[in-house]
Design goal:
By secondary structure, the chain is an alpha+beta fold. 29% of the residues lie in helices and 41% in strands. It has helices spanning 7-10, 24-40; strands at residues 15-21, 44-55, 60-70.
Length: 73
């Protein structure tokens, strides 16, 4: 069996919003920022999210990518 494709690869999306942070306090708040952005944009239909963390010897970066389309009334 092959690996299944992520939802954003198989279900259409129209836009991507990227949230990223490198400082510890910013990383801790990143999920709240995504939630606040979604609440402020009720027209957004969430398709998928991808969370990634990268780091080197000094820095740690957390990224949340939101795949969405805009629902028309």
């Amino acid at each position: 069996m092959g690996a299944s494709a992520p939802a954003h690869a198989t279900v259409g999306y129209r836009a991507v919003k990227v949230f990223t942070a490198t400082k510890a306090a910013e990383r801790e708040r990143l999920g709240d920022l995504v939630t606040e952005w979604l609440a402020a944009h009720p027209e957004v239909e969430l398709v998928d999210t991808v969370v990634q963390q990268s780091s080197d010897q000094q820095f740690h970066c957390l990224t949340i990518v939101v795949f969405y389309r805009v629902s028309m009334p």
